[in-house]
Amino acid sequence: GFLAIISFVVAFLARSLPDSFNEAKFITFSMLVFLSVWLSFIPAYLSTQGKYMVAVEIFAILSSGAGLLFLIFLPKCYIILLRPDINTKEHIVGKITTRK
Fold first, then answer.
1. What does pLDDT average to in each consecutive run of 10 residues of the chain (100 residues)?
2. Among 94, 65, 72, which residue's Cα sits nearest to residue 23?
């Protein structure tokens, strides 16, 4: 929890970096998903009883892990697989502009 909050604060403060080096928006959004999953986990866990408590724990762990994985790495996979023309060193450094 503490590491997630620190990561969110640092990513929020680093949001003004240039777009070619800016991972902060992906990290910020994934940390928001992570925190919202665990904040919704608390009342769900406290309201369940018996064998369903384990299912709630597992669901929270899997959903927060999937949210982090997809929201950080899915944009990278999109560029690598679907937009290989902008996956060059020149584009990352900012010498080439692309049209949308």
1. 77 68 74 87 91 91 89 86 82 63
2. 72
